[in-house]
Structures are given as C-alpha cells and as structure tokens.
Amino acid sequence: MADAPIFIDPEKCKGCTKCVNNCPFGALSMETRPERKQKLAVVDGGACRACNKCVTSCPFKAITMVETEKSGVSDLAAYKDIWVFAEQDGGKVLDVAFELLATGRKLADKRGCRLCAALLGHNLGDEPKRLIAGGADVVYVADQPELAQYEANVYTEALSKLIEEHKPEVVLAGATGVGRAFFARVATRCRTGLTADCTRLEIAPSPDGKTMLLHQTRPAFGGNIMATIMTPDHRPQMSTVRPKVFKKAEPDFSRKGEIKPEVLELAKACTRLVKAIRDPNAVNIQDASIIVAGGRGLKKAENFALCEKLAKMLGGVVGCSRACVDAGWIDVAHQVGQTGKTVCPKLYLACGISGAIQHLEGMKSSDTIIAINSDPNAPIFGVADLGIVGDVFEILPQLIAALEKETAKQEGR
Amino acid sequence: MHVIVCIKQVPDSTKISIDPVTKTLMREGVESILNPFDEYALEVALRIKDEKGARVTVVSMGPPQATAIIREALARGADDGVLLSDRAFAGADTLATAYALTTAIQKINPRPDLVLFGKQAIDGDTAQVGPGVSEDLGFPLVTYVRDLKIADDGTYTVETVMDAGIDVLEGKLPAVMTVVKEAAVPRFATLAGWVRAKRAPVTVWTAKDTGADPARLGLNGSPTKVVDTFPPPVKTGGRVVDASKDPAAGVAAIVALMKEKKLGVA
Amino acid sequence: MGNAIQTDILCVGAGVASLSAAIRILRTLKARGAKALPRVMVIDKGRSVGSHVLSGLVFDTACLKGFLTDEEIDGLTSEKNRNRPFAATVTKEAFHVLLDAKHSLPVPWVPPMMQDKGYPVGSLTKLTQYFADIAEKEGAEVYTGFAATELIEDGNGRVVGVKIGDKGVDGKGAHKSNFTPGGEVHAKCVILGEGGCGILTNRLIEEKGLQGARPQSYAVGIKEIIDVPENKERNGEIAHTFGYPADMATYGGGFVYHTSPTQVMICYAYALDYAHPEVDPHSLFRLFKAHPTLAGHIKDGKTVAYGAKVIPEGGYYSVPEVVADGALIVGDGAGLVDTLRIKGAHIAIESGVCAGDTLADCWERGDFSLDALRAYGAALKKTDGWKQLKRVRNVRAPFSINTLLGVMAAGCAWATFGAFPFWQVPMEGDAEATLPLRGGRLPEAPALPGGPLSVDKLTDVFMSGTIHDEDQPCHLRILDPGKCAECLKTYGAPCLRFCPAEVYRLEDGRIHVDFSNCLHCKTCQIKDPCHNIEWTFPQGGDGPRYTRM
C-alpha cells in the first residue's frame, strides 16, 4: 500500500465512517483493530487523490493533509491585476481571448484590480484597441517579428518575462492548442500552479479567510467529477479555459484603456516553421462546436444531405451513429459513440437516432442536446434538453427553412 | 541515441461513473491501464529504436502497482524502465510531477536525446506535465507531434497538429515532445516480449534516490490545492414536444431553444 | 518453428482449474524438495485474468482443504483483503418453483443436495484473480491477451504445443502496420482449461474420439450484477428458482444472490435443448427478473454489469475421456459440472489439483507419456466432485422430456444415490432439438416488462464491457451464407434471438454479424440448428471485460 497524502490520527478517529462515505475515490475504509474498540479509518495511498474531502468531512478533525513545510512566494501582496493572454493567429486576436476578457472583467471588478491583456505578435494593428473594447484596462503589447509565429520556446520566454516584470496575480489563457502547450511551460518557469480547462472561475475568500483567491473549477476523470482548485501560496494563479466555455461581451469602443508597448529581448527560436498545412475540408467532429448527427432513422445514405445542409448552415459538422457507418452511408470519421469518437459540442442535434447506450456514451456531455425521433420511447430523449417526437423528414426541411428565414432577418437588420 | 518516454498508469476512466446515491466515484471493477496517449509516445520511441537502434527507457511515477505499465512497455520493446514510488511524491500536481520526473530523467541520463510524452493523460487531461518537464530540463518543447523524422545529425522534421491545421517544424535534438494519437498505431506486445518483461527487473526509485529537493515534491511542492470535489450536474431528459401531428410546433421549439442559447442563430 | 517458446507445462485458459493445476505442480514439487522446477505457463485470451469467466458463485470450499494454506483460505473472505472474492456468506436460502408470471411455490425446505448455508458467495472473476496471484507467487507465469488458436501435434498425433493467434490483421485478412505474428508455444504437456465449449478442447475430443457416452449439452447462463440500496440484513441471502419463464419441456432456472449489502447477482440459465426457435433467452431473463419472487430482491437497483456464458450440463455421461497424448482436459471444458447444483468451480479445482499431482509425478520421473498422463483420469474419478457428478448422473436428461418428470427423477436419483433411473436416459443434441417454426412463421414476441431493471440487450452488452478491434476478420464465421435464407424460412433465424449479445442482426433479409458485441459465450456455435456458425478466435485481449462476475 502506497503512503498516502493524508494522515489519520488514531487518537481522534472515532470510527464514524463519515470520511469513508465522503471519499469520492473509495480510498478510505474502516478496519477493525485489536487494540481499539471502534473501527479505524485507513487510507489506500494508491487511490487517494489528496482532494481534501475527508479532511473537511471529519467531525473530529482526525484527518489532516501531510504537509511539512510551505513553499511558495513570500511577497504575495506584490502581485496585482488579472491578466488575459490574448492569443492571436495571423495578427487577429482569437475569440477565446475576448471570452476570457468578459469573465476576467467580472473577476477584476470583484477583486478590485485592473484587467490587463498580454498580446504577443507582429503587425498587430488595431488589435490592442479591440482588447480594450473587450474589457481590458491595460494592454501589454510585444509587437516584434520574432513573435509573428507561435513558437513554444520563444512565447514561453516572452510571456514569462512580462509576468516577471509586472507580477500579475492571475493569468488566464485559452485552452487552445497553443495555450495548452506553452502556458504550462510558463507556469513551470514561474514555479506556480496551473489549472487546465476550467469551466468556472470565481474570486472568493481563501479557505483561511485571509485573502481573496481564484477558485478554479474543472471536470476531472473524463467529466465524471468536478474539482475546485486554488493556488494559495504561489503567484500568479494561472488557469486555462476552453474556447466557448464563457461568452464574450459586446465590444465597447468607448471604453478607455492604456496600451503599453513592450520590447522584449528574446532568444532564438528552437524550431522553424517550414510549412503550414491547412485543409478546409478536414472533418474533426471532436473539435466541432455544433454537430448535426443522423442515425438509422434517416433510412438511406441520400438523406444525410439534409443533415449536411443543416450542419453547413450552422457552421457545424455531420456526425452519425454506428448503424449508418455499418450500412456504408457515411465515413467512420463521423461516427460518434463508444467505438467512434466522444464529442462535447455546444449543440448536438440528433436526427433519427434512437440512442443506444453505446451512442449516448459518446455525446451525452454535450452542452445542449436536441433530438428528433419518431419513437417517443427512444432513449435519446433521456439525455436531450429538447426532444421532438416526430418525423425527421418533415421536421428537418422545415427547420432548415425556418433557420434560413432567421438568417435572412439577421442580415436584413 | 537515447529516448526516454514518460508514461502514466491511469484508471480506465471510460468505465468510471458516479454513484447516484452516494455521489462518489464508483471504482469497483475499474482497471488500471497504461495511459492510451502514452502508448503512442512509446510507439514513436520504439520506431526510432527499430530504425536507429536507439535505447528506449520508460519512466513513470505512481504507486508500486504501476510497475505493471513499466513491464507492459518492456514487453513491447523498451529497454529498461524506472518507477518513482515514494510517499514523498504523493499528492503531486503537475508542477511537482514534472519536477520529480525531471530529476529521474537527469539521473538516468543527464543528456538524453529525446523525451517523449503522450499529449495528455486521460485521468487528469491537463497536458501540462510534458511542457513542464521541457522547462525543468531546459529542452525545447514541441507539442502535438503526429509525425517525426530524425536525421543522423540530430536535426528533425515534425508535423504537429494545431487547431487550424498541421504545422511542419524543423529543429535539432534534444527536445521534449508530446505525441498525439495519429503519430503511430501502437504495436502489440508479443508473448515472447511478455515472457522477457515478466522477469526483467524494474528499478524503483524513492525521492532520495533521485536526489530531489523534498520541498518541491508531492503535496509540498504542489502550488495547486484541491479544495472541493463534487459530482457534475446530472443531465436528465428535458422537455419533450410531441410534433408527430404538428411538425411546425417542433420546429418552433427547436428554433426558440437555439435562439435562447445563441446556437447557430443570433 | 525454431523460435517457438519452450515451456514444460502450458495451461490454456487462466481459469481456476488451470491455475489450480499450476499451483499444485509447483507446490508439490517444492514440498518434495525437487531439484529443478518445471516452467509452468498459463495463457488466456481475455484482456486480464478473470475477464472471461462467469459464475454464481456460491462456493463449496471443501475442495481447498489441503490444497491452499489456511491463510490463503481465510484470505478469500477476510475483510483485510480489499479485493476478496467473497464478501458474504450464505445466511438464508430459499428455493422456489415459479409456476407462471405471478405465482410461485416456495419449497418449504431446500433439498439437501442443494443446501448452501455457510458457503461463501461472491465473484468467480475475483476468485480467479486470487488464484492467479497465488500461482504467480509459486513461480507460474500467467499471460493474458493471448489466444491459443490451434493445437500443434507431432507426427505421432501427440499434442506438443499450441499456436497463438496473430494480432493486427484487418477485416479483409491483410496485415496492418502493427501486425504481430502469434508464434508457437511448445510444452511437454498442455492442460486445456478453456471453460465450457472450449474450441480447442472440442476439436481434440472430436479428433481423438474422446467423447463421453452422450454428447455434451449446454445451458446458457445470463447474468447481471445489480447495485441496490444498502440492506445489511439481506447480505448473504440467496434464492434459487426453477421453472418459469421456461416452458414445461425445458430445463430452466435461476438464482439471486446478495453478495454484499449493496450488490445482488441475478442469473437465469436456460437449457439449449429448447425446442422452439422463437425463444429469446435474454427476454426470458427479463421476464424472470420481473417475477414477484425476484423483483423484491433487486428493487430500486441499477444494473452495473452483465455477462453470459454457456454451462456444460450434460453431467456424468457427457464427460469425455480427459487424457489425450500430451494433453489433459480440466474444469468446465471437460463438462465437470454438478448439474443439479449447477456448481462447477469446486470440481474444476479438484480436477486441476489431480492434474497437478499427475504432472508433478511426471516431472519427477521425466515421463510425460500417455500412460503416465492417464493417472490424471484415474485420480479424477476418486474425487468428491466426481462422486457428486455420478450421483446426479441421470438428473438432467428427464428434464428434457418434462420438468415435472425431471423434478421427480431428481428426487429419486438423490434418494437412490444416483442409481435411479437405472438406465442412461438418452438426450438429443442441443441444435438438433430445435423444431421448425410452428405454422411456418414467428409468433409474436412476448410483451417485455418495462422499468429501469428490464435492461435491453444492447445496454446489457455495454455493461459487459465487451470490446473488439473492429478492423479484424469477423470471428463468427457463417460457413455458408446461402443457408441463412433457408434457416430464416424454417426456423426464423434463431441466431437473432439466442445470442445474448445481439451479435446477429437481420438487415434487408440478410444476416449481419456485429461481432464486436460478442461475449464469447458460444451459444451460437452450439445452438444454430443448421450448424452454420463457427466460433473462431478474435484477436487476443478482445472480448468481454468482466471485473466482478
């Protein structure tokens, strides 16, 4: 049995089993000991994830985290402001940065500090102004040729230097391919904590009540459990957030803000980009934010055209259940489910999919699920936010027409 | 040439679920497996070994049972393996994990040519340890590698999978790389491989063995603290509209919901 | 092949029978102070040890005395063992005859031959893992994920090893980038412990004419594990049933075991010599679970695991000659199941122990000849398990005529120590027992109960954890697709129903095989009336992933 990150004081443990029942990982159990009347809680170090749940749930304060000395930075107060790393591609700041600014604005207001954006790139034009319109009070801009293209090692150095110089209290980045790669390296260089893929961020009191901390909530174990994480003794507190988790605000170009140009001395890049291959037709249903999926209820291959049309209108991609792949209606790259891909789009529109568990497992964590099926007892309705009992061949064309009308209205406005 | 692959034992999370009554993770019957992404990293390493005769060493950190994945790697063709197992490592977040792995790598070989990681582990999904080790080792970082070609002079060409498409990069070893699924279909261990691996010694190191600074390990060395865990909001069936006789009503309901949630329509 | 792996003893199938043999050989030789120990290898097609085994399991521990140490026997049930196979002991037992969907007749006393009080009850998967741990500690090598697909014989017809299945072959039979040839393992003796309806075992039996007096007959057992709200009082409670939803001419029965305060195992076994091709054993299982006698046991529960496997229940007369030149057959593969109690694990262990004793002697004398191996057959006949088998030798057959006759015969058999019915009651093969559709068409399927516990087949399949690489040759071969149309006409394609994993689907008048659903139960190989389905081995490591069956 591995040693565990928690310590159970046998003097204080009264054998009440509260910790056993509260442990999300089944790491605790009760054991009979010859030397004592009550059972004693014991921990399986291999299973314990140091989640703190038992510590807070023990009525006798018998459980403590094994911690001998505190590391961290001594001058916590020197760190101020909330930062957003404003990722850009080809000189255009990505949406995710604006989504983070919108959330960062609320956090900064709560904390009573400034919201700043850090922008790395070259030939950035008016992008700093857009960041201010998106909610930033200050924009640090390093506009130099070495930063035109993302390169993990140069970007690490650039952002680390800015952090070192300005000492932000919080730094947020989008959990994009770029953000997830070099941001972790930045956190390591700063010797601080980083929490990936947060789905909720809040400024709230620290557990000891002495200060305000960033409470970072993220799914763990494939979304089967949520964890709230803090970085109490290190700065900055760093998190990444997936695109589309937060909503961006309407830009307000009347906002006032300060643009601070930075000139960074940077080492040479370690890798050189020789080619960028961009295939506009590549299907990647796992990254799609909208999926229109068809199932056996579509009856034949030609009917997938309806799904394709709708998907195209919505800027999404087509998914399908296994039956359709088996029947040869569509390529396996589109298959969602246990033997296909697991997806988590903003919208999953299931057309003529009954929803065998094998399919549901692959899509049930989608943000919004709409299902159209003729069988009112189809299991898909058990996970759908909105279920439509009806004939897909009637509803889909009407839906396409209705959405076309909506779009026309938008454009006409 | 020496390639070090960092691997992790993870619960087969596809089979974990939350007990609806006690709201805790149901672990019974959940197997521990080699993190699938690490299988791709290992395969990339083994192909380098096949082509260039490189030595492949696997490193993992975990409880003593994690020797199982070291053996699995040996069975597939890795040359040797080290497991870091010590209470001092317990409760480590990604920063402390990266540090611990770095100390082990440096002890195995202060100057390996290539250190490989799977792009992320399926239990934590953070994708942070690989970049962290690149920093601690002071090696250049290349992420999301799907194709790697190494020339005899140590220069390499990689295809990396970015959000917008594929970037082809050139560089020179040493490097830390994280590997995606598309990189290689993992080989199977042969029975003969397993027979070898079963009897092969697996080195187990404690924190002392690696000479790591105890303050940077385990809970002590972890800036992030988990303060609470709770079950995610459970998705239950929502509204059902019977549009079997009135398709228009169904369409209206869909459009209304999409508008409300700002999905596809403004 | 020059690079075959050489071992002394090779066990095919890492079940309790094989593992007992492995443990016994090594322990016996160590106890005798043998100078050198044989190399003992155990291979299994499942991904991990126990992932393809399924049983009740109310375990008769008598067979362990003198085989395992007291400490090891304690470990089976000890709270200290976090992964103990048995978390409960039978505290209360009942026996019901289910008359119809609503009514049942509790048998006021449990027939003495079926009493289980005091026996531990739990998981065969975990028991198997427990045995594997002991075997490895003794020095045996256990390798999972490797299917032995063929027996290798020398020029004299002696079994000298097995061929291991290749991996990395695509659906069309071409090599994929990760193609890995399986190779061969050669041994002085091969122990076949493949379980019920073992493919290599049956091939050997046929080829060498080892068949017993009657062909083997089978039942398919369909099982779910259900998590229920905590109820400490019921822990260890068990009930066996007989009758409904089986018709009067078919042997069918079930059980429900409370294996922990929060876990119930429920199983229904249905004899495969049933006559009517419209029957769907999985539907019967759903009807069974909804019967008022059972429903209370699983109330407010949630199905968390599922599995199916065939049980050889031909009994005494169907046991083949268990020794061939170079090979011994142990456990369920030899049909060593007490048909009345539907218990086989203890006899399987006894058979493994006998095989182990024999091979220890062979090793010491350096003689693995057929004559030397025959000692195993003789030893097996001296075991308690064999005596039980003999005592109930005629219990099973009368059931194939009529249930009531069977019940009476069972009583008489027990009273006369197995002498009655004095003659060997003949039985038909399972597939041959299938009658053409009445009136030439399928009757309407019975209405199935609703509710969260009436789980449909595909959902159950999901719970089994079964998974197969989709890009490999279909391991369920339809030998002559042309025959399917005829079968559909005459029998209504029974494969669509008898398969407890919905492997067979009818699409546009053709049978479509979803082999990746397969639970490796072998029902199709046994029950297809046209003998048109051949069960072959998928890639090693594929198949169900039972973790607590």
Q: How large, in whole angstroms, is the Cα Rg of chain C?
A: 22 Å
Count the DSSP helices of chain A. Answer: 10
Quaternary structure annotation: heterotrimer
What percentage of residues of chain A falls in helices of 4 or more residues? 25-40%
Question: Which blocks of ≥5 consecutive residues of chain A have pLDDT under 50?
Answer: none
- Give the terminus-to-terminus CA distance of chain C: 38 Å
Category from helices, strands and their pairing of chain C: alpha/beta
Low-confidence stretches of chain C: none
Strand order across the largest sheet of chain A: 11-15-10-5-8-9-16
Any idea what the CATH superfamily of the largest domain in chain A is called? HUPs
The CATH superfamily of one domain in chain C turns out to be FAD/NAD(P)-binding domain
The percentage of residues in β strands of chain A lies in: 25-35%
Report on the architecture of this protein.
The complex is a heterotrimer of chains A (413), B (266) and C (549). In chain A, 26% of the residues lie in helices and 26% in strands. Chain A has a seven-stranded parallel β-sheet, with helices on both faces. By secondary structure, chain A is of the alpha/beta class. Chain A has helices at 18-22, 53-57, 95-111, 127-133, 152-166, 177-189, 304-314, 322-326, 357-363, 392-412; strands spanning 6-8, 28-31, 40-43, 63-65, 82-86, 88-89, 92-93, 115-121, 138-143, 170-174, 194-198, 200-205, 212-220, 225-230, 237-241, 258-261, 271-277, 290-294, 317-320, 347-351, 368-373, 386-389. Chain A folds into three domains: 6-65, Alpha-Beta Plaits; 76-261, 3-Layer(aba) Sandwich (Rossmann fold); 290-412, Rossmann fold (3-Layer(aba) Sandwich), CATH 3.40.50. The mean pLDDT of chain A is 89. With 266 residues, chain B is α/β, with parallel strands linked by helices. Chain B contains seven helices and 15 strands. Chain B has helices spanning 36-52, 67-76, 94-108, 129-137, 191-199, 207-210, 247-260; strands at residues 2-7, 9-11, 17-18, 25-26, 32-34, 55-61, 80-84, 114-118, 141-150, 155-161, 166-172, 175-179, 203-205, 225-230, 239-242. Chain B is globular, with a radius of gyration of 22 Å. The model of chain B has no long low-confidence stretch (mean pLDDT 90). The two termini of chain C are 38 Å apart. In chain C, β9 (148-153) and β10 form a beta hairpin. Among the domains of chain C are: 5-71 and 127-214 and 316-391, 3-Layer(bba) Sandwich (FAD/NAD(P)-binding domain); 438-444 and 459-535, Alpha-Beta Plaits (2-Layer Sandwich), CATH 3.30.70.20. Chain C has helices spanning 16-31, 70-75, 124-137, 199-208, 281-290, 292-295, 345-365, 370-380, 384-391, 396-399, 403-415, 457-464, 481-491, 495-498, 523-527; strands at residues 5-6, 9-12, 40-44, 86-89, 92-98, 104-106, 120-122, 141-144, 148-153, 159-164, 167-169, 175-180, 184-186, 189-192, 218-227, 237-243, 252-260, 263-271, 302-312, 323-324, 327-329, 476-478, 504-507, 510-513, 533-535. The radius of gyration of chain C is 22 Å and the shape is globular. The chains are: A alpha/beta (413), B alpha/beta (266), C alpha/beta (549). The interface between A and B is large, with 120 and 107 residues. β17 of chain A pairs antiparallel with β11 of chain B, so a sheet runs across the interface.
